[in-house]
């Protein structure tokens, strides 16, 4: 077990020769998750402001305006600009994230009082990073990463709720 900037790293089924790769793989992954979370928070705040303006103008809640549609387009563009360098085509084929809200997607992980990641790497071709927040519903994410010429990229993501919960596929980072 190691610590990286207040993040506890727990090695599982990882031979010693692969353990140093955690220092190469984890920082870019965690940084893109933080940036993605900040993007979602920004877009949500702007959307909330637009909804309030729309309500004040007497526009029905179910009716979207051009400003909201432009915000969705901006979110999709900025999301893809952010995650594309860090994801494989397999992850990108679904396009941009299709939701934003409060809490943001990774708030349960990034705001955890004791943030720990479990790092598993049995071969040089695949690493698995799992993180859970045991305080908030045991919300967890698992990321499958593969090496490419320009670095490690997310090739899959999964989510689980509860300690014994099954993992479900996530189509966006």
Describe this structure in words.
The chain is α+β, with helices and mostly antiparallel strands and 173 residues long. It contains four helices and seven strands; from the N terminus they run ββααααβββββ. α1 (22-56) runs antiparallel to α2 (66-83). The radius of gyration is 18 Å and the shape is elongated. The relative contact order is 0.18.
Radius of gyration: 18 Å
Task: Report low-confidence residues grouped into runs of 5 or more.
Answer: none
The total of helices stands at 4
Strands ordered across the widest β-sheet: 1-2-3-4-5-6-7
Which oligomeric form is depicted? single chain
Kindly report the average pLDDT value.
91
Count the beta strands. 7
The N- to C-terminal Cα distance equals 26 Å
Q: Helices and strands: which structural class?
A: alpha+beta
Helix fraction?
25-40%
Proportion of residues in β-strands: 25-35%
Reconstruct the topology from this structure.
Elements: E1 2-4, E2 7-11, H1 22-56, H2 66-83, H3 89-92, H4 107-110, E3 116-123, E4 126-133, E5 139-148, E6 151-160, E7 168-170
Parallel strand pairs: 2-3
Antiparallel strand pairs: 1-2, 3-4, 4-5, 5-6, 6-7
Helix pairs in contact: 1-2
